[in-house]
Amino acid sequence: MAIPAPDLPPSPIVPSIDLQADGVRHGHLRLPYSRDDSAWGSVMIPICVIANGEGPTALLTGANHGDEYEGPIALYELARTLRPQDVTGRVIILPAMNYPAFEAGTRTSPIDKGNLNRSFPGRPDGTPTQKIADYVTRALVPLADVVLDFHSGGKTLDFVPFAAAHRLPDGRQEAACKAAVEAFGAPYSMTMLEIDAVGMFDTTVEEMGKVFVTTELAGGGTASARTVEIARRGVNDLLVHAGVMRGAVERRETRWLDMPSGDCFAFSEEAGLVAFRVDLGEPVREGDVLAEISPISRTGAAPFTVRAAMDGILAARHFPGLVKPGDCVAVTAQIVG
Ligand SMILES: [Zn+2]
Hints:
This protein is α+β, with helices and mostly antiparallel strands. It has helices at 70-81, 99-104, 128-140, 171-184, 201-207, 225-241, and strands spanning 14-15, 23-32, 42-52, 57-61, 89-94, 146-149, 157-159, 162-166, 188-192, 211-216, 255-258, 265-267, 272-276, 283-284, 289-294, 304-307, 312-318, 322-323, 328-335. The chain folds into two domains: 14-258, Zn peptidases (Aminopeptidase, 3-Layer(aba) Sandwich); 262-335, CATH 2.40.50.100. It is built from six helices and 19 strands. Strand 4, helix 1 (70-81) and strand 5 (89-94) form a beta-alpha-beta unit. The chain is globular and about 65 Å long. The two termini are 33 Å apart. The model has no long low-confidence stretch (mean pLDDT 96).
């Protein structure tokens, strides 16, 4: 059960701005963090609220993982440019949700090694990362009708660009999430299977009954002009779809992908130098060699072979040139629409 118990102590996080009033406000979530270089110091997490009268609320989050950049780029820009008169209701923007990780350029927080997207629903009396998760869960998600959480592959994965929803027990909620994914209009739309959904923001938001969209927009610890444009247009059209912005959703062609089982994921059992035989987006057949992993400590040894367990396309791959045992090397996804 991801929804937190009602008898938890209050969050130590204090917003520096009014989250309710109309207008544009830029401020911070101040998370007290006592440490060697600042006894009464704080982590200052940027937040922006743009509100205009009655209407739905969208919560937009980037840098849940600190080394994923399309979301923060699109969301800092949106916070700079979106005007109240463009909005009906409210947009809450957290462009760098795990700010310590984002500032360090790392997936997890340098303060406590916390992986924010494995820390939900969080704890008000936990680590700084758990406190961020708790505040978002108890103070921000309840305000929202729709939540968009940007991800990319970070430094160690790369993806074909997609927005995603999950299979949900409530068919109507799943349909609403998928309609929002289609409005985002990435080149691919994914029915996403998680390796381990426990502790994810996704799971918490979905269990709270909200419309939730996540993304994987490329990776490698950077962002390209193409993938930033996908993020920029995606968030705009999702806000239109949600009724928070006026206008018409510009329908872009998207291909639906599915991850029907754990057979999608191919893991390495060896360490070595990875040579991909297929690039992202290319078609694969069951049994095809996706990659070969060669030992680097000597010449002459046979490589470990990673094969596709189903027909589809290569949807994700390990990004660095060397892999370790247990690394996810490749993800195959079925084309379903
Ligand atoms: Zn991520």
